[in-house]
Structures are given as structure tokens and as C-alpha cells.
Design brief:
The chain contains eight helices and eleven strands. It has 289 residues and is an alpha+beta fold. The protein folds into two domains: 169 residues, D-amino Acid Aminotransferase, Chain A, domain 1 (2-Layer Sandwich); 79 residues, no CATH class. The longest helix is centred in the N-terminal third of the chain and has 17 residues. One of its GO terms (molecular function) is transferase activity.
């Protein structure tokens, strides 16, 4: 859906969120999941994520939701070595030293999701268009009605990082490790993010989940168990220790682990799982008070 159209449609919900956030989330939850949201006694994974939006105000969330500030958090956790190389950071796109950048890089606005600019050949990059795009994106704000209060709290900036590929033009496998109270519980492995996007879901022993239906999950996809699995899980455990729930995104390239991001509400907490018993089991891993 066009972003402008989406903003127009959700404008009444943004207003409702300011007046009655619980009612707003209940309506959105019904529209997105076709289920009734129980905030008084939440049981499923998605219900508890909505509860956390309203009740979990960890001061680290705005820091770790920002793509620049989270780098400092990763350093404090002792994992500076897994950060991708930072080529430039700043607030004004006009200041970007394009002539000094390597042939490939990734440009990100630090408060955005899905707004990265992947440059695989600097000679083909339309610089003026890129600058205009970045200026527009810096002004964009997360829709308040989704309840993800921690996005955009910190002033957004631009960062430029090194581009990672496997040497054949493909992006490395994206290991999304879902952690609960500092403990990894399962992994969703994503492949071919920019071409033929697919994923599958594995337990900590790398056994695929059976008979589960979930957005973007392809049960026929076979992702090879990484040799560095134990290292991935240890890293995720350390990075997740301060949170009730977080998804730790990591990559492996040439046997080296790289940090992706920390995500607290996967798809705003609206992606359901079937059968519902599996989602209830995963929901039981989030202890709320």
C-alpha cells in the first residue's frame, strides 16, 4: 500500500491512540489478525506483544530501536567486533561524502524500517535523488496508532555502513533469534532478502518447526545449520539479557558474525501463528506482571 494512502487511512486511528490506546490496539488487532484482543488476560504471543506496548517502558528500548545508538549498546555488551563498519554518520544528507565512499555501501535512516538504500555500484547511484529521498525519510515518523512508542524518540540521523554479501551478489543468511527474558528460544532463518525472499523456523537444535503456518514461513525451505550456531545463540543471549522480549538479528559471512538489529515488535506484533496452540506456547515464554 502507498505510504501516503496508508497514513490517510490510519489518521483516525492515530487520534484514537492518543485518546484511548487500548481501544486503538484492540481495533487494529481485530483488523490485522481477525481475533479479539484480550489485554486483561493475554495468552498468545501477539496478545502479549500488544500488552507490552502499553505496559513495558524499558528506557533502553528507544536507544536500541535507533540504528546508530544501538551500536553503542552492542559495544557495552562486549560485542564491538560484530558491528559492521561505519563509514559515515550525520544529520544532513548534503554532507555525505559520496566521493570518499567505497563502491558498495548501505545507507540507513536510524529511525526507519524497510527504508535502507542498498548501493551495489556507486557509479550507478543517482546522488541527487538519494539526497532528496533521505531528506524526505528523515521527516517521516512511525504511525502512533501502532503503539511502538520507542521509535523516533531519539533524533533520527543517517548512517552509512559497509555492504555485506557472500561474494556471489547474494545477501548472507539473516538469523533472527527470538529471545525471552534473556534466553533464545527459536530462530527464523531468512534467505535471499533482496531477490527471492523466503524463510523457515528452527528450534535451538536446528530442527524445523513442524505443521506451523506463519507469514513468510516456507516449510519446504531447507537452510543449512550454521557451524557457528552456538556462537550465535551466546551472542543473542548477551544482547537480550536486559529485555522481556527481543528479536536479535545476526548474519554470518566467511565464518564471522555480524550484528543486524534489535527488534522488539516483529511486524508491530500482529503476525499470528497457526495452530493457535503454538502461539499460546510461545506466549507463555513472556512473563508479565
Amino acid at each position: 500500500m502507498n505510504k501516503s494512502v496508508k497514513k490517510f487511512i490510519l489518521a483516525p486511528m492515530n487520534l484514537l491512540y492518543r485518546i484511548n490506546p487500548e481501544l486503538d490496539l484492540k481495533i487494529l488487532y481485530r483488523l490485522r489478525t481477525h481475533r479479539k484482543l484480550n489485554l486483561e488476560n493475554p495468552k498468545t504471543y501477539t496478545e502479549k506483544l500488544q500488552w507490552l506496548k502499553l505496559n513495558y517502558k524499558n528506557k533502553l528500548l528507544p536507544i536500541c530501536a535507533d540504528k546508530y545508538e544501538v551500536r553503542q549498546f552492542v559495544k557495552k555488551c562486549g560485542y564491538e567486533n560484530i558491528l559492521t563498519k561505519l563509514l559515515w554518520e550525520g544529520y544532513n544528507p548534503d554532507d555525505i561524502p559520496f566521493k570518499d565512499l567505497p563502491g558498495q555501501f548501505v545507507i540507513k535512516v536510524t529511525h526507519g524500517s524497510g527504508m535502507n538504500i542498498i548501493c551495489k555500484n556507486k557509479n550507478e547511484l543517482n546522488i541527487s535523488k538519494t539526497i532528496r529521498t533521505l531528506k524526505r525519510r528523515l521527516k517521516e515518523k512511525y504511525l502512533p496508532c501502532y503503539g511502538e512508542w520507542f521509535y523516533g524518540v531519539i533524533r533520527p540521523r543517517i548512517i552509512i555502513e559497509e555492504f555485506l554479501d557472500d561474494g556471489r551478489g547474494y545477501s548472507p543468511v539473516d538469523y533472527k533469534i527470538f529471545c525471552f527474558h534473556g534466553k533464545p528460544k527459536f530462530i527464523i532463518a531468512h534467505v535471499d532478502r533482496f531477490t527471492n525472499y523466503r524463510s523457515n523456523m528452527y528450534d535451538l537444535e536446528w530442527n524445523p518447526f513442524q505443521n506451523i503456518s506463519m507469514k513468510d514461513i516456507d516449510p519446504n525451505l531447507v537452510v543449512e545449520k550454521p557451524k557457528e550456531l552456538d556462537q550465535l545463540l551466546k551472542c543473542a543471549e548477551i544482547l537480550s539479557k536486559d529485555f522481556v522480549h527481543v528479536r536479535v538479528d545476526l548474519y554470518i559471512l566467511n565464518s564471522k558474525i555480524y550484528f543486524g538489529e534489535l527488534t522488539f515488535m516483529c511486524d508491530s506484533g500482529f503476525v499470528t501463528m497457526n495452530p493457535i496452540e503454538i502461539e499460546e506456547e510461545i506466549g507463555s515464554w513472556i512473563e508479565i506482571k
